[in-house]
Amino acid sequence: QHYYITNNLSRDMEFADIFLWVAVFSLNIVPVAAFDTGDGLALLLGLVLGALGVLACIGAYSRRQIYS
Fold this sequence. Notes:
The protein has helices at residues 15-26, 37-67. The chain is an all-alpha fold. The longest helix has 31 residues, at 37-67. The chain starts with 14 loop residues before the first helix and ends with a helix.
């Protein structure tokens, strides 16, 4: 049984395919020599916002499953 993401951008692409593309594109980031405080704060902010986004998507998915 396959669950498809039903949004306006991609109706046919499965979640695993999207996760695979995100993983591939995130591996293309080139490491830098200097890592200062601003970079650390940006990384922390990005991780927090990313986690909140994932949790929001999981919550929206679970609500859609409960009420449908």
